[in-house]
């Protein structure tokens, strides 16, 4: 109860202080309005102003991530409209504008490509470690096939880490969580020159948190998490025209318990869960990533960029997968993954009427996966064990050119040709008495495919403050195989690739003499052979198929207003209508509260896609005001929300997530020179209960399992810079 009063008091204080500061700024000359700072992005593989890029891009700075205690992509998704992160027992999945690759197939790559410091990550666990020393996160909406290429049919997320700087930097941040996810986090950054040509930056983070669900069986909090992550970035400045950057990063995550709870028919939702006593319940991951980036500038303004990347992880996970107090079903997941990639890119000078980028990309990875299920339920008492191996190679050539007819009109055309090959083998073994759908037949397959992904953008720049654009882009994602599944035969082992075609009209405006920006985008995207994986609770298996076609269309609006030198306001709102156009082989769905019959198939064309709310948005007020004693008062309030949506492919009423709104607040003091900062941070202060994923509890009719988002979390943060 005391935190409700704290939230009310803090919100009232923020409203009063923001009003007072705005009035003070209107009177005092020293608080005259200033311009919105230019936001720089690399959405087109060169550094540009956000307002000049003909793409719908949402950018979150590293400073905002740190100050709002946003530790991972799941937390970020709540503040970015049309972005949804689905956390599941196996892998996480990313959705943009309602489209993504549901994670039921553990061998899935994402329809939304994730790129970290230029390296592609198609597997959810490659970069599952919390945010550490991030410079920016760019969410690129819509197909990005021409430049980003690998599996970007629905969009891309581009994360850039901070690099070394010529000025020495030593920073420590300590965050202690006192409600909702009790624990602490410590991060340390050390950066600066070693010689005039050699610079280094080291970043370390350790966190230990108890979790936000109360496990009523053990009395502990779940998911209890211990994270350790370290990164070193080395810059070697050979000359003004040749530079090397090496990034090495290792992470270890140990998780006890899951953020999942099951609710029996007619039961109430809450921040509690129960498990079978004595059943191991953990998820441990170790990962390593290395990226070597070389830039060579030539006298004619052309830059050659080489990006060599290696990524690997292994994880071991055991869950009590009936999610009840009875020891009915256990699941084990183990995987080893490795990937190596090489990109070579030539970039022209930004001067002149014609600018261009050409490049080649090669990629190879291997998955070794083991999964086991143990069932002790009624007459059933047995196990299924599966071994899955997949090897994947990909090669592509791409190019993009922009021609400026004059100071106002320009056209950009891009093209990428991709060739991909996958081979997979799976062996299965059953023992004891198991469900008849659990089989032990071996499976194997090979796929060879190619895709041509073009893009075209027409841009009209009235002035530096007014820009309009129209764009077309095609995206693709290769087909593949279902990994480590207990059910299905050879005909269900393989699925086809998916393609998308997107049209977008947009404008980017700078208003009020530079005090404000307003960006608007209207879009429509058509998907063919959309890959879908839905859970069948009766067989405890995910069924992976290709939906015939789907469409996502809507409007996105984002704006920033620098009210005065102390107060900034930003907001975003998205309307999205994502539906299946045709899906004739879909498993039957719930209708009028009646569950579907077993083994039923129907066309669910016209149905709204799950995890695709019609409305999503966020509104933020930020205050950074100097006091007469040399200190600064800091305040940051965010209201974010979404309309209702289903979280399961069968549209069970129990999986419906009602519309919600959440309030985040940060209040703090800081030294004028940023040498120290002390802040109180509250996320989801109204303690809204929401879930990111839901499915029918295996073998228990009427019960529903949810992956629960954090409730109210209150933290105290101290930052020191030397």
Automatic annotation (TrEMBL):
InterPro entries (UniProt xref): Beta-barrel_TonB, Beta-barrel_TonB_sf, Plug_dom, TonB-dep_rcpt-like
Signal peptide span: 1-22
Alphabetic keyword roster: Cell outer membrane, Ion transport, Iron, Iron transport, Membrane, Receptor, Signal, TonB box, Transmembrane, Transmembrane beta strand, Transport
Gene3D superfamilies: TonB-dependent receptor, beta-barrel domain
All copies of domain TonB-dependent receptor-like beta-barrel, residue ranges: 272-685
Record keyword Transport present: yes
Residues covered by the TonB-dependent receptor plug domain: 50-156
Bilayer topology: Multi-pass membrane protein
PROSITE patterns in the cross-refs: TONB_DEPENDENT_REC_3
Keyword Transmembrane: yes
The family this protein is said to belong to: Belongs to the TonB-dependent receptor family.
Protein known as: TonB-dependent receptor
Organism: Brevundimonas terrae
